[in-house]
Amino acid sequence: MIMKTKIILTISSILLAFSFQETNAQTFTKNNWTSYCGWHYGNTPAWGGWVREFVQHSTGFDLIDTVGTTLIVDTVKLSNLFTSLSTINSTVDIMQLDGGLGQAKDTVKSTAFINMIKADSAVFWKSLVYKQCNKLAQLTNSENRLFYQLGNEISSAALSSSIRYAQGMPYSGGSDYDHFIIPSFVELYMAPTIEAIDSSSVFNFGAKGKINICLGSITNAGNTAAQRFLDSLLNYTITGTYAHSLAGKKVYELIHIITIHYMMGNSAMNIWQNKLNGYAKWIGTGRVKGVWSTEEVGINKANSGAGAAYSARATFRYLKWAIDSSYTSKVARTNYWGWDYGPANTRVDNFNSELYNFLGDTKLSYANPLHTTFINFTNMEWHGFLNDSATKGVLSILGTTTQTISQVKLVNNGWGTISNVSVTRYDTTGNYNIPITLTSLSDSVLVTFPIQNMNTSVVLLFRINIQPLTVNIFEDQAIKKNYTYQLFPNYPNPFNPTTKISFSLPQKSQIKLKVFDVLGREIQILADGIYEADKYEVEFNASSLPSGVYFYNLTTGSNSITKKMLLIK
Q1: Domain 365-467 carries which CATH code?
Q2: pLDDT tens-digit profile of 316-349?
Q3: What is the pLDDT of residues 360-383, one digit of tens each?
Q4: What is the spatial distance between Cα 6 and Cα 12, in angstroms, rounded to a whole number?
Q5: Burial class of residue 69, CB neighbours in 10 A (0-12, 13-18, 19+)
Q6: Domain 365-467 identical in fold to domain 480-567
Q7: Threshold 0.70, pTM exceeds
Q8: Contact 311, 339 (CB under 8 A)
Q9: CA angle 563, 566, 567 (to 5 degrees)
Q10: Any residues with CB less than 8 A from the CB of 444 and at least 6 apart, and which?
Q11: What is the distance between the alpha carbons of residues 258 and 289, in angstroms, rounded to a whole number?
Q12: By the 8 A CB rule, do 318 and 293 touch?
């Protein structure tokens, strides 16, 4: 007698996050979500994938010392910088503010820097930058891990005033997005610095561009004047007065990353992505390969208790943008100035740590709640994500105006079979769990809770546990069958609301089993991955679908089989 055993395996329930016509719902972040999130200074948070200015005031102009009237490199401070940076996990990217003219926002430093460059045609400055790069190139995994940001808030009125003053003009003549300062900024600072960085890259790694060059951050980047300033700067043609080898080059041919400030958390919900794409248009032009938000939230917002709310906007908007555009974390990432500032339980660190503790360090797919959630209010922003095993999801509801909310409907088509939900409110007083009631409907789960007053400093974070689909594998232990590629008729057929679909494989194969409607729109992926030679059975649940004809298709490399089934309710 042949003995058979029944082996139960779980596979990910597949998120159908957008409407049926939007097939990019199953696109994941290219890297784990933490790789897209960075912090300023100090110790590494668990969710931190990269760091900006790990130690302050230890690069560039700050490494200059004097012996009498002679300028020298402060090698002790440089060694201390290297020692500090070597403590960071070697998988974490390091961005340093290479302080020079672009960082000095006061008249004394600006004047001193310009005088130094002119005194010896930038020879000493280039030597300093070269030595600094060579030292930091000794860090573990330093190739393509080092990022030098040239300038900070370079479109600000403060920097404009300092540069104008250093050139003999009234300090009060400065303004935001001042195109007048571009030649001075590029010729006196950017060009000689880039020349030195590229020389070090060749020396240490055999080619230019292995040490990444970031164009110093554009202030208040949501302003259209900021984009015009950036366009003029990137299109500027270098004369090479202090960097002869770069004469005739455009700035966009020399920098790798565009950095921006205070747009992701501060822009209105309906305009941020279009404005961000205004910067992303440069990706692929010359050397440009990414747009990073290097300051979000800000100290004022953090200290007022709005750190969690504004970091939620920055985190979720940047992750959505990365998924929509299929960007890696080298192309798109955000950083939180003020990540550990603010009252207890209102900080960026509190919010991102909760994401990390719940989701883990995983890739995420986007669940567009516009198609999967019903909320009894309008003019509100929300974002939903699932982890790569589709066993956990998060939904954030962000206040944009003062209004209330007391109920959310999570539709199965978007979230899968929900087994548990918890809701945390973050506001300026702290964070706390909200008591909820779950009501299971035929197509969804209704989440009801006490009325919540929402505003721009409030975020509701839903943590959603999802029950994976179950696949039954039937294996004959006594006789190993010679299977063929087959897709069997579903049973029962017609069905309501569930039916079983079986298929067999003669050899280990990469397969995908999908369900479509009569218009060819993808409804659900039932199986996706590498499967051993065997016979498999999957259950399809159509409780949320209308009656009608549906098709299921098995694709295995060069093989494709389609069959029809009928749902009658």
Answers
A1: 2.60.40
A2: 999 999 999 999 999 999 999 999 999 999 999 9
A3: 999 999 886 655 566 655 677 889
A4: 19
A5: exposed
A6: yes
A7: yes
A8: yes
A9: 135
A10: 409, 410, 411, 412, 544
A11: 8
A12: yes
